[in-house]
Amino acid sequence: REVIEVTKEMITVLQRRNPAIRPSLAIIQAGEDDGLLEINKKMARRIGLNVTQICLAKECSEIEIVTEVLKLSEDPGVHGLYLHLPQASLTSRVLTALKPEKDVDGLSDLNTGCLIRGDLSAGFVPPVTSAVLEWLSKHHVTLEGKTVLILGGHGTFEVTLRCLIERQGIEVVVSDWTSKNLKSQVMRADAVVVLEAGKKNLPPTWFKPGALVFSCDPTSKTGTLFNTCMHYIIILQVTFRRHNVAQSCGRWLQEQEYQPWSLSSISLQPLTPVPSDIEISRAHTPKPVSQLAKEIGLLPEELEVYGRSKAKVRLSLLDRLHNQPDGKYVLVAGITPTPLGEGKSTVTIGLVQALSAHLKLNSFACLRQPSQGPTFWGESNLLCLGGAAGGGYAQVIPMEEFNLHLTGDIHAITAANNLVAAAIDARILHESTQSDKALYNRLVPSVNGVRRFSPIQISRLCRLGIDKTDPASLTPQEINTFVRLDLDPSKITWHRVLDTNDRFLRKITVGQASTEKGQTRETGFDIAVASEIMAILALADGLEDMKGRLARMVVGTSRSGQPVTAEDLGVSGALAVLMKDAIKPTLMQTLEGTPVFVHAGPFANIAHGNSSVLADKLALKLVGEDGFVVTEAGFGADIGMEKFFNIKCRASGLQPDVVVLVATVRALKMHGGGPNVSAGAPLPREYIDENLSLAAGGCHSNLRKQIQIAHLFGVPVVVAVNVFKTDTQAEVDLVCQIAKECGAFDAVPCHHWAQGGRGCVDLARAVTQATRRPNNFQFLYDLQLPLVDKIRTIAQKVYGAADIELSPDAKAKLDYYNQQGYASLPICMAKTHLSLSHMPEKKGAPTGFILPIRDVRASIGAGFIYPLVGTMSTMPGLPTRPCFYDIDLDPATEEISGLF
């Protein structure tokens, strides 16, 4: 009764914390045992837990037992597992399959080891052992100095029982039924515990007066005294088993709560001169990703491991930590870059290394996945895509895995995108060559004499206003409306994609085979990261949201002027299936062992250029209320940061605490009037020699403007000066001084490339101080403004334009989008990243120009309208000498050479 009351109170406390919780025990037994089931059910009702009984065949095989054990061990609804099986069936393989945290009978080696070591908090005391200890404690005022004989002992029970009894100060003697000294051992014992019955009886005259004699073996028949005691022990075992189940449930519930980090940093020993990125990466061994996951509070069931150093993280984490407050949210943006890039990724990684490894604050980096196109290109004027692992001593490792395939997300996007393209052309062909009746019979076939609409077809009927579910009930007109998408081939906006730079696919003709019956049309390929599906992946806040966005994607227009969606094609469910794993962020780590989420990689000019909403949300929960999540926006603040605020923050509902604006002396000199910089060409002398005048000119123009853009959104700015070896101290000091004069909260030099996190400690301190300032975050425009006014607002307030100029095509498109009900979507401007204006050659902060909008397109699934400013290519080409000339593999070591 006492044990039952304690267990009931435990369950009551658990249910106060989580009213839905109900401890559950699963019993696996060989053959029927209604008596056992009745005892368990009766006890379950008294205590308040669930019992499930799995009855295997009496002569079941080891593999059958293991299969059931594995299934129940992985079931989150089962908190305890009792193997009511013959001793011979409790093989090593069976016990290995049993999760120690559900081993409420204490059979596993881990449980036994914990008990022997004295750690009663980690494992479970076997119910048999608890029952014996309870019996002894209730029948002796003092146990110290007593002697207990354990008879017929074997395996786990004998070991743990002996260990725990001895810890009470009791002498333990272990014997078996064949011992020659059995009589003398029984006569001197204060208690005799029979673990396994023998073939002979113990005469009553052998027992010491007042000795306790009882059996834990239900098959024993050694006398009236044994039978009485045996009954009590069995009931007590069942009671303690229930107690262990409640204890297991409590531990499980505690695991579900937020866990403080126990992050172990990896010490860096930077070399001078700094080796190549790939040499640094290979010189450092990352922690096993399972260890990293445990350190940051992830549960094993939330991890899907890909090899040793990367893993997918399941979205169930968001449900588990739903009530956990978010950490601080930091955005890394930059000034208008040179074609060489200014190091936003290295600053992002250096900052989190400084926060975690040096300031001991929980921090997470969220980065985009790079495209393979620029990886094999070898030039860096598409930095939004390639080489995003950072560099020097501030990078994600292993960098080969980061830059090549990773966990296959881009391949999933490619497959999904091209499935839509295939569905479009197939539908045009079939509609052009079949009657309404033939189309209808094929789209809604009779299967085994039964004809029914699929769920996605019922959705289409509802959108068409046809409230019918019986295929036989549609009228000829309704059949025509249902089967005819009537896509206008000249107004199909959907392209195929490929994650390779291939200029000859920019414009192609499809359908030239004779089997396609003359259905030729012009189309083209984009690079995979420019796909709308990539933008959707980055903005979705869950699987259901992603599925809805995929369904809403507009692929073209019908001849009657109506938009045609992926759901109209019937393909949206299949797209969700292809993308179900890609939606999970990939966990990796920096050189110093700080966690990184790598997820999504949308084109930064045609899409929003930010990593995923889900990666940020997961990281914000994991770091805890006092932690930091650092995410990066593509290109300059006028592109990536503006889209982060106006598009990504609207989709996520998150608000950043501070912007880190990355600047380099090199880029500031260019904006101050310095000569052009080109990838692959030597730097002009102006960028190597000290020139305070050029640096000041860039600060007072481009840097000032980019700080002002951040202030438009009400967010404090910390300027990070990414120091290069050609910079002088006077130049760096000047930039920091002017940045603060221009309104930055602080400005600090950063040496992370050469020193790792230690070189970014000052930036980390400045960021932590900036997050304590009041935040007046606001969006740049109201979504209810007309589309043209939203475009004008961005052009004037962000870029510095005097006004916009719409081409006739752009004006017609805006009218069409207004008519279709898309007017309330945000704007995603597509323009050059090399200038605040639409003219790449215009550096600094040009003003007074007219921004030409040559076309306007829509990504309805992603949820934005994108005006095209100037000429934008969505399929890069290869240069004369791509870097694949230098990339090779050593067949013996499998080591890659020539990659970065």
From TrEMBL:
InterPro entries: Aminoacid_DH-like_N_sf (IPR046346), Formate_THF_ligase (IPR000559), Formate_THF_ligase_CS (IPR020628), NAD(P)-bd_dom_sf (IPR036291), P-loop_NTPase (IPR027417), THF_DH/CycHdrlase (IPR000672), THF_DH/CycHdrlase_cat_dom (IPR020630), THF_DH/CycHdrlase_NAD-bd_dom (IPR020631)
Cytoplasm as UniProt keyword: no
Domain Tetrahydrofolate dehydrogenase/cyclohydrolase NAD(P)-binding stretches: 128-214
GO terms under cellular component: cytosol
SUPFAM superfamilies xref list: Aminoacid dehydrogenase-like, N-terminal domain, NAD(P)-binding Rossmann-fold domains, P-loop containing nucleoside triphosphate hydrolases
Pathway annotation from the record: One-carbon metabolism; tetrahydrofolate interconversion
Keywords annotated in UniProt: ATP-binding, Ligase, Nucleotide-binding, One-carbon metabolism
Gene Ontology terms, MF aspect: ATP binding; formate-tetrahydrofolate ligase activity; methenyltetrahydrofolate cyclohydrolase activity; methylenetetrahydrofolate dehydrogenase (NADP+) activity
Pfam families membership: FTHFS (PF01268), THF_DHG_CYH (PF00763), THF_DHG_CYH_C (PF02882)
Domain of life: Eukaryota
Enzyme Commission numbers on file: 6.3.4.3
Metal-binding as UniProt keyword: no
Gene3D superfamilies: 1.10.8.770, Formyltetrahydrofolate synthetase, domain 3, Leucine Dehydrogenase, chain A, domain 1, NAD(P)-binding Rossmann-like Domain, P-loop containing nucleotide triphosphate hydrolases
Domain Tetrahydrofolate dehydrogenase/cyclohydrolase catalytic: 12-105
Alphabetical GO biological process terms: carboxylic acid biosynthetic process; tetrahydrofolate interconversion
Assembly information from the UniProt record: Homodimer.
Family the UniProt entry places it in: In the N-terminal section; belongs to the tetrahydrofolate dehydrogenase/cyclohydrolase family.
Protein name according to UniProt: formate--tetrahydrofolate ligase
